[in-house]
Amino acid sequence: MNIDNAKSQMRKGMLEYCVLLLLRRQPSYANDIIKQLKEANLIVVEGTLYPLLTRLKKESLLSYEWRESFQGPPRKYYALTDEGSTVLREMDATWSDLSSTISLLKETSPLVTRP
Questions:
Q1: Is residue 69 within 8 Å of 12, Cβ to Cβ?
Q2: Given strand 28-29, what is the order of strands in its sheet?
Q3: In 69-91, which positions are buried (b, 16+ CB within 10 angstroms) versus exposed (e)?
Q4: What angle do CA 65, 70, 72 make, to 5 degrees?
Q5: How much is the pTM?
Q6: Residue 76: beta bridge partners?
Q7: Mind listing the pLDDT tens digit for each residue in 35-76?
Q8: 3-state secondary structure string across 51-112
Q9: What is the pLDDT of residues 3-34, one digit of tens each?
Q10: From CA 47, how far away is CA 4, in angstroms rounded?
Q11: Residue 29: in which H helix or E strand, if any?
Q12: Could you give phi then psi for residue 45, rounded to 5 degrees?
């Protein structure tokens, strides 16, 4: 098994959820989203984030507005839509279920030790 690939797939699967969680707090600029994800130890590059933001916008989960910047051109700030908030609540419930399942499996599965 390629463990690096498995870890990468797990992170990719959580990225959409993490972005929605961040935008639940306040509208954010893409670079701010990347910074916050890095601070949470989820390393994401622009080439991964921008297509995700575009897809979420097309799915009506996000909206955006242009805001003037003190440092260069206007910036696109993303925000959750009402539909995005609904999807996030469903994802929260799913995450809770998955987390409970994983915790249960970790607690009840015997540890295998190799000689």
A1: no
A2: 28-29, 75-80, 62-67
A3: eeeeeebebbebbeebeebbeeb
A4: 80
A5: 0.85
A6: 66
A7: 999 999 988 888 999 999 999 999 999 999 999 988 889 999
A8: HHHHHHHHCCCEEEEEECCCCCCCEEEEEECHHHHHHHHHHHHHHHHHHHHHHHHHHHCCCC
A9: 888 888 888 889 999 999 999 999 999 999 99
A10: 19
A11: strand 28-29
A12: -105, 160
Q: Half-sphere exposure of residue 78, counting CA atoms within 13 Å on the CB side?
A: 26
Residue whose pair of structure tokens reads 């509208």 in the numeric block: 27
CA 34 – CA 43 distance, rounded (Å)? 8
Q: Look up residue 10 and give its two tokens.
A: 């797990």
